[in-house]
Amino acid sequence: MAQNVAIYDTTLRDGTQAENFNLSLEDKLRITLKFDELGIDFVEGGWPGSNPKDVEYFKEIRKYELKHTKVTAFGSTRLFANPAEQDGNLNALIAAKTPGITIFGKTWDIHVHDALRIELADNLLIIEESLKYLRPHVQYLTYDAEHFFDGFKANPEYAYATLDRAIAGGADCLALCETNGGTLPTELSAIIDAVKAHLKAKKSTIQFGIHAHNDSECAVANSLIAVSMGATQVQGTANGFGERCGNANLTSIMPALALKMGYGFTAAPNLHRLTEVSHFVSELANLSPNKYQPYVGQSAFAHKGGIHVSAVQRNPLTYEHMVPEKVGNVRRVLISDLSGKSNVLVKAKKMGLDLDSKDPVVSAIVKELKDLENQGFQYEGAEASFELLMRRAMGTPKKYFDLHGFRVMSQKTPDGVLQEEATIRLAVGGEEVHTAALGNGPVNALDKSLRKALTRFYPNLKEMELRDYKVRVLASEHGTEARVRVLIESRDQDSMWGTVGVSPDIIEASWQALVDSITYKLMKDEQNRK
Amino acid sequence: MAQNVAIYDTTLRDGTQAENFNLSLEDKLRITLKFDELGIDFVEGGWPGSNPKDVEYFKEIRKYELKHTKVTAFGSTRLFANPAEQDGNLNALIAAKTPGITIFGKTWDIHVHDALRIELADNLLIIEESLKYLRPHVQYLTYDAEHFFDGFKANPEYAYATLDRAIAGGADCLALCETNGGTLPTELSAIIDAVKAHLKAKKSTIQFGIHAHNDSECAVANSLIAVSMGATQVQGTANGFGERCGNANLTSIMPALALKMGYGFTAAPNLHRLTEVSHFVSELANLSPNKYQPYVGQSAFAHKGGIHVSAVQRNPLTYEHMVPEKVGNVRRVLISDLSGKSNVLVKAKKMGLDLDSKDPVVSAIVKELKDLENQGFQYEGAEASFELLMRRAMGTPKKYFDLHGFRVMSQKTPDGVLQEEATIRLAVGGEEVHTAALGNGPVNALDKSLRKALTRFYPNLKEMELRDYKVRVLASEHGTEARVRVLIESRDQDSMWGTVGVSPDIIEASWQALVDSITYKLMKDEQNRK
């Protein structure tokens, strides 16, 4: 398919302006390589003139050979006081030695007066001169017309003039920036039409792009509309990370362009990896992925309502706007308040349990489920605990040990050192063990002592490890007395499973999830031996 | 201003299809009253035919006198097998005794065949007959044309026919439903134009509405475009809660319609309460509000980048698309990785600290901040810990007690009972106390023993309480050894404050946040006494 639009990612620059979104140098390098694998056309890596971490990034990224991505350095027009060749910011861009450079300049007269505090004519001058100075040093030069839409609404003639000077300066592309995110789709197209008319009148064939923000929750729509009107560069970030309410979400824009609108770009054939890449970025930023996120969210193809579930079983098209696998996502059927028998049966089948809808066990499970959910249990991330619940209702599985008691002690000495110790007494088939372990926190100490005690009897527990431990406070009105939900994710060489525990006491909630996790591992191995 | 569009909220019905979004009967009643205060025109309360909890809701809500809101019951067209007067679902709608009823019917031929499994003509029949039967019993009757846009793309003539029969059945409004959320703004308007032309040709003056889902991240844009094309009813949910990726977000649609597009509706003059109402719904559902949410999110008017901060100081318009107070939100300046001195100075001023940008203390604070943030500290929700950090850098505040040590013990007996006890030794002005307390979990026990020890010396601690206790696991790769961040929110009669602690050990992290919280309270009271 023809390559008729370029994907320009600014997660590493504009994205890091987001609250709670911080990336280390290492993270930025790994994300760049991941985007190159996916086939992103431009990766804006940072602002070398403003941030030493970014200078470091450009030095490091040059050591890697990228298959496709054009790494791009971002910066502002020169200071009016400086001649271009003496402007630190412009020279930092050249020093970054990137195939792409993007320069932003002011479009909006109030910015020229209030932010730069210079004359309108002087702003036009620094736009043209900054670009002219950079032009010979770079392969692809983008001009970001900051606040273009607000500037246009305030003073269209001046907005045009800034574009004209960027063209004169030698820009390859004019990115129209909807910086404050306030422009609605109902006003956007008229402005783009006017710009196209202006460029036509000037007989300019320069390409234009779109850079939108999500303050009106319209960034994706505005970007798609702009591309449909001829924009050939679309700027945004992974998962829409960005200042305030975020940038245009490329994770939603790319599948719409490729799978719904028929546009071509290098990443288009790789969108079956979109979910993986989206979660990769969230994990490196240590943010849990947004489960409601379009296309890639855990809930994006999840079905809860009873009717939906049965309809989707018959024909997925009925309640899904696309095939989840095309973006690397999967269909999920949720266990929940609304869950009727049909949901439970679907789940059972997935677990290889053969249940009949008339079997009284099914109603019993649905009832127990509702009770547990009222206590705050959630099985959406704890399939293993749910399977154990079902199997217990069906009389299996066996109990692998009897707890006689445990004790967890945290002691802080006057010198401020805190130490945890857990002791546990349990019996397997009549034989009792009494062990102790130190730990890094009370739950870790308990976890270690429990495994130490059980590994004697079940050596295969050595294969499993706890991968993730999440705590959520349920009712927020009781301070430290609130109920907590603990979610534990475990894995061994061939699978991963989640378990859950709920209690006002974090030790008790963790204990429940730990015991479920170990029980699940032992049960799974027994079945595999069969 | 003329009332030219009706706001139709389905948080209580379609919204509750969202994963992790569950509301009790009590919650649903409280939300209805809150929406009535705000001036929402229609509140779709539930589906009495499908859910006993909803029958209860309609019985209860009738006991309240609402100022403005038309409570609406939702249901499907009758089963083909039943005559209307014997259809349980339709009679449940009548029994709900609501001023509004909304019936959904099938538009899309594959649904008629695969979901209903009846003939196309039979579907037309049940649409008309169901509406005719309900018409005399209700003040406002809406027809939800389910999957209208997908149905239209597949078979426009049949889609028109379903609308014609809904008109014949006596509907007041035809809500065009974008049920699967797959239709893009670039295709929506052509379909709406065609529908308008069809209605015109039929000489029908019936009103039409829009019901959009967010699977393509375009629900808000699609809704705004539809209203701009003449839709007089816009359906959606608070915060966009809803199945999969959510429904159209009324919390973003209302401010755009009223404050940007100039439409009139009853809630328009009350939008300064929008943030309050948005958070109210999240809190009742026990979900933490989405901080990046447009208009009402904590980050929606937050500024992180150094330049932005100084520009916003001079002229808020430069980086804000609207005045935050119009939607009940506020501007925030963030302390963060990118935070330069200017951010710190702004914060200091807010705290009444008079700092000079040349004061070496400022650079010291910025440096300490970066170190702590690298350890995982976040001050965005912990202003009190940040103030203490600043004051410590400036030599205040004094130390209110010396810790000699504490011990927290969790003991589980063979009968499964878990009990926590904390003992603590500390001294105030040379006088030592040694106390103990039982608690509901280790942190709660520690909290109680600490207060017990200190209240003897500082009786004003009785006025404060812990309101919220949040735990976040930072690095997710080390199971129970991961670092945790604890956020504590405290309050007394006249203020609220947040404090933070970080450690691989939840006891240690909690201890840090507890001590900051108490220190802040004591310092605050001292200053007020001055």
UniProtKB/TrEMBL annotation, chains A, B:
InterPro entries in the cross-refs: 2-isopropylmalate_synth_dimer (IPR013709), AIPM/Hcit_synth_CS (IPR002034), Aldolase_TIM (IPR013785), Citramal_synthase (IPR005675), LeuA/HCS_post-cat (IPR054691), LeuA_allosteric_dom_sf (IPR036230), PYR_CT (IPR000891)
Keyword NAD part of the UniProt annotation: no
A GO biological-process term: L-leucine biosynthetic process
Catalytic reaction equation(s): pyruvate + acetyl-CoA + H2O = (3R)-citramalate + CoA + H(+)
Record PROSITE patterns: AIPM_HOMOCIT_SYNTH_1, PYR_CT
One Pfam family of this chain: HCS_D2
GO molecular function: (R)-citramalate synthase activity; 2-isopropylmalate synthase activity
Enzyme Commission number(s): 2.3.3.21
Keywords for this protein: Amino-acid biosynthesis, Branched-chain amino acid biosynthesis, Isoleucine biosynthesis, Transferase
Cell cycle recorded as keyword: no
Residue span(s) of domain Pyruvate carboxyltransferase: 5-275
Pathway info: Amino-acid biosynthesis; L-isoleucine biosynthesis; 2-oxobutanoate from pyruvate: step 1/3
Primary enzyme class: transferase
Protein family per UniProt: Belongs to the alpha-IPM synthase/homocitrate synthase family.
Protein name: Citramalate synthase
Organism of origin: Thiovibrio frasassiensis
